[in-house]
Amino acid sequence: MTLSKSTNPCSVTNMWSTRILRKAAWTPNIAGLMLLSLALLMQLNAFSQQSEFSPYSRFGFGLINQMNTPVATGLAGMETAMANAYQFNPGNPASATFLTQTTLQGSGMMSNLSMRQGEDNEASATFGSAGPMGIVVKRKNGKNALILGASSYSNSGYAITRNNDIEGIGVVQERYNGEGGLSNANVGWARVFRASRMVAAGDSDSIRVSNRSLHMGIQTQYLFGQVRRSSTMDIIDPTFLDHRANFTAQHRSISTDIGLILDQLIRVRYNKNRDFENSLALRIGGVFTPEAKLSSDISRLDETTQTLGGIAVNLDTTYFSSLTAFAGRMPRSSNAGISLHYDRADGMRWSAGIEYSTTAWSEVADEMSEELLSDGVNWDNAEALRLGFQFNLGRSEQRHPTWGKASYRFGLASGNQPFSIDAAPIAYQTASAGATIPLVGSRSLSRIHFGMEFGTRSAENSNYEERIYRFNLGVSLMPFFKNNWLVPRLYD
Fold it and tell me: Residue 22, SS3?
C-alpha cells in the first residue's frame, strides 16, 4: 500500500484600522468587509481539495465532516450545547450571538493516519489541511450577528497499490487513486433575545440579572466540489490487455441550516454586599437542516489499454456514461444537545454536555446516482454521540497570567460514516483534548486555540483498521478596545 501526499495551506490576513475623532453616526467598514469576502472566495477552491488518505474515502462524496474548529476538536466535535464567547461553529449559526464582538477566525490541521490490514500490511501518512475559517460581524454587546464563512464538507485522497500472482496470467498490479472533496460556503444571520428578573442579594436587597436568553440563527450553505477516482489493472505479461477506469463527479447544492440555543439560568447567588458568588445554568440547543436538491455532473470512462514502454496506451473504449445535471437529494440532518454551566466568583467555571446528531442518508439513497458507490457499498444513516467537558481554573490572583486564564476541554465521541460495506457500517471512536489561551500582547480578547484527537475507524468483521491522530491550531481575532470595529465613528 502506498500513499501520496498533498498539502493545501490556507491563510487569510486582514488589517483594519479606525481613527477616532468626534462622535457621529455609526457606519460599518464596508471596504474591509468586501476585501474579507473576496479573500474568503479566493480560498474556496483550496477547501474543495483537502486530503484524506483513507481507502474508505473512495465511496460516495468521500469521508464527511473530518475538519472541525480547534474548540470543537477538543470537545469531540460538539457544535451545539457548548457554544462560547470566543469562537463560533460554522455548523450552528446560533453560536454567533455568543460572541462578544466582531470575530475573525481560522485554523490549520495536521493529521497522521496509520492503516493496518491483517498482521503484515501497514502504511501511514502525515498531511496538513486548512480548517474552517470565517468572520462574524457583530457590534460589541449587540443582539445581531452577520456570518460569512467557508469550511470543508468531505475529503477524498487515497493511493492504493496491490500486487497478485495469478496462475496462468502472472503478476497483476492493481492501482486505485482518488482526490478532491466537497466544501461549504455559508452566509447567515443570528439574533439573541434576552429576558431578566430580580434575584435576592442579602436580606433586603435584590439585583436584576439576565435569566434567560434565546439564540436563533439561520444560514444558507452552498455545497460544491469535485471528486475524481481512477482504477487500473496492469498485467505485467504484455500478451494480456490491461484495463483502466476513470470517474469524475461534480456536485452542487444549496441548503439551509436553522439553529436554536436556549440558555436558562437555574440559580444565582449574591452575598449581602451584592457581590456575585456562583451560578448554575442549563443550555439546550439544536440544529436542523432539511432535505435539499443536489445537482451532479457525473462521467465514467472504462478503457482497454496496453502498456508500451511504460506508457499506458488506449486501445478501445469499453464503457462510457455521462450524466449532466443529475438531480439527486441531500439528506435532512439534525443535531441536539444539552449542557450544564457552573460559574464561581473567583473565575472558576466548568461546563459539561452531551450531543446526538443524525443524517438520514438512507432516505435519499434511491435518488442518488448508482455511479457514486461501488458494488457491496450502500448508503446508511450517519449517527454520532458526543460527550464534552470544559473548565477554567479559579483564584485569579494566584493564576499564571497565560495558562491560568486558559480554558481546558476534553471529549469522547462514537459514530459512523454514511455508508456501509457488505451491510457493516464504517464506525469510529475518538478521544480528544484542547485548550484556549489569551493572545498575549494583543491587548484584546483575541485567543489561540489548540485541539487534538485520537481515534480508530473500521468496519465490523473486517481485518482492516485505521488509527487517526489530529492536531488543530487556530486563532480568533477580536479588535483592541481602542479600535473596536462597528462602533460610532468620530470626525473633526
Answer: coil
Domain boundaries, the chain: 30-483
Looking at the structure, give the CATH architecture of the domain made up of residues 30-483. Answer: Beta Barrel (2.40)
| 282 in Cβ contact with 244 (< 8 Å) | no
Phi/psi-derived region of residue 118, left when phi > 0, alpha when psi is between -120 and 50, beta in every other case: left
Phi and psi angles of residue 356, each rounded to the nearest 5 degrees, phi first? -135, 135
Give pLDDT tens digits along the chain (492 positions): 333 333 333 322 222 222 222 322 333 344 344 444 434 443 444 443 446 788 888 888 999 987 889 999 999 999 888 999 999 999 999 999 999 899 999 999 999 999 888 777 788 888 888 889 999 999 888 999 999 999 999 988 888 888 888 887 888 888 889 999 999 999 999 999 999 998 888 777 888 888 999 999 999 999 999 999 999 988 888 878 888 899 999 999 999 999 999 999 999 999 888 889 999 999 999 999 999 999 999 999 999 888 776 677 778 888 899 999 999 999 999 999 999 999 998 889 999 999 999 999 999 999 998 888 888 899 999 999 999 999 998 776 666 667 778 899 999 999 999 989 888 899 999 999 999 998 877 777 889 999 999 999 998 888 889 999 999 999 999 887 655 555 555 554
Nearest to 67 by CA among 97, 114, 111: 111
Residue with cell 451532479: 296
pTM metric for this prediction: 0.82
CA distance 219 to 94: 9
